[in-house]
Amino acid sequence: MKRSLSINLNKIALIRNSRAGNYPDLLAHADVCIKNGVDGITVHPRPDLRHITPKDVCDLSNLISNTKKVTNKSIEFNVEGNPFASKKNNYPGFIEIVNSVMPHQCTLVPDSASQLTSDHGFDLKVNSDKLYPVIQNLKSNGIRVCLFMDPEEEQVRLARELEVDRVELFTGPYAAAWGKGDISNIFEKYRVSASIANKLGMGVNAGHDLNLLNLTKFCTIPDLKEFSIGHALIVDAISMGLDKAIGSYIKIIKSS
User: Fold this and answer.
1) How far apart are CA 58 and CA 254, in angstroms?
2) What backbone phi and psi angles, to 5 degrees, belong to 221?
3) Is 163 a catalytic residue?
4) Residue 95: which residues within 8 A CB-CB, separation 6 or more?
5) Per annotation, catalytic residue among 29, 51, 80, 226
């Protein structure tokens, strides 16, 4: 079974934006990721432009397209964010950004402007009616649609009713519990949720605070398709170097 690693480059952009200029160079780091064997690049452009900007999304899309032309290597581009984030100053709106680049995958995330980072999945008992037309529009453009979800059976079943292609299980609670005692109960919630999603015909991605310590166990869940990892990998790159950090994550994901 092929499992993919998609590296989230938000933190590279965050460091760059702390100073004037283009250092570190986001595209150069994306190129290092691609040359070291990643399967995809993920970005999460937020309305406050704290890290990834609309221009970054366009530039990365072009880089990935050119990589395909030059090397015939297919790299997936995943753009994630709140589908209801509207135009604000230099932010044109999330859906407008997505439609401007037509990524391979769009991961819809229910984050608000005040959140430091994504910290929960959609409550589809509340949001389904609003999400359905957005999902159908993206799918009609040939974009794979993924919903950011908590590992809850009822919510996963509701996702199937919205005809999404995949769910991404929010792994923050799993990561937070790691090293603090018995995690069998919380791990089982993820295993069951992934199993239900697969049986309903949806692919399963995973992401948020996965790292070199907790990733191996999570990889024992069958039929996971993609891991979106950013913060921990960039932190590891400080001590290991980006190429070696990427290799360490790929080794776990591909060999589990």
Assistant:
1) 29
2) -70, 125
3) no
4) 83, 134, 137, 138
5) 80
Find the distance separating the first CA and the last CA of the chain, reported in whole Å: 10
pLDDT tens-digit readout, 33-84: 999 999 999 999 999 999 999 999 999 999 999 999 889 889 999 999 999 9
Question: Regarding the domain with residue range 4-255, which homologous superfamily does it belong to in the CATH classification?
Answer: Aldolase class I (3.20.20.70)
Which of 104, 168, 208, 226 is catalytic? The answer is: 208
Indicate the pTM of the whole model: 0.96
231 is catalytic: no
Phi, psi angles (nearest 5°) of residue 56: -60, -45
pLDDT bracket for residue 116 (50, 70, 90) = low
Q: What's the rounded mean pLDDT across residues 225-237? A: 97
208 assigned to active site: yes
Cis before 24 (ω within 30): yes
**Domain coordinates in residue numbering, the chain:** 4-255
